[in-house]
Amino acid sequence: MLNGIRFVLVETSHPGNIGAVARAMKNMGLSRLVLVKPKEFPHPEATARASGADDVLAAALVVETLPEAIADCGLVLATTARTREQFFRVVDARTAAERVVAEARGDPGRVAVVFGTERYGLSNEQLLAAHALIRIPANPEYESLNVSMAAQLIAYEIRMAALGASLPPTEREAPLATPEAMERFYSHLEAVMNDADFRDRTATGTHLMGRIRRLFSRAELDGNEVNILRGILTAVQNKRRRAGDEH
Q1: Of 151, 20, 169, which Cα lies nearest the Cα of 108?
Q2: Could you report the per-residue pLDDT of 211-226, keeping only the tens digit for each?
Q3: Which of 14, 130, 177, 214 could form an S-S bond across to 226 if both were Cys, CB 3.0 to 4.6 Å?
Q4: CA distance 212 to 191
Q5: Sign of the dihedral defined by the CA atoms of residues 95, 101, 105, 107, in that order
Q6: What is each CA distance from 116 to 113, 133, 186, in whole angstroms?
Q7: Which domains, and CATH codes, for the chain?
């Protein structure tokens, strides 16, 4: 079950942190590591800091973009240390771990925890790919955590949740929609909104789709539900085209 949970590191600058995360993962029984555009990998420092978790490093998947890293996932959780997420659902590490384990038991291999860069974390755009954000309740006067420290804490909570298994496996009528399916839905929705002249009326004109994405992320749509919504959008488009032809 734990082998189906992947840790995704986005644009890691220091190879030693990659090795330290691999070590933390192996300590807690995790093995699936995905690296998004790391600055340096493979690297001797990564191997040294892994301290025996060479198998995790050797099996690490390296990709160019976050969408590639999570393309086949259902549940995606992203880590954050900043307070800009007022419109996101935010959970602590322990609650997140219980959810991760329950989801992994019900839908193996499709759960991801995403970590950002050492300096800036994850961008607002990258956070939109997540169903919820994980925050570690650290000292508010000094909340800064190294990425490997954050990974160790979350990996520990996942292991404890797996040992306790307090939540039953997640059972669904259909698997959660993949990020790729959600992106197709958002593109479809935006096209229909543009056709209907439903536009962002805020000063910058850039916030509406972000709010809509966060809304549907919180809803955790499954594949069937996305197909239903896209069917509705297609029906609206067809109706508008017929109305246009009549004139």
Answers
A1: 169
A2: 899 999 999 999 999 9
A3: 177
A4: 14
A5: positive
A6: 10, 12, 24
A7: 2-164 (3.40.1280.10), 179-246 (1.10.8.590)
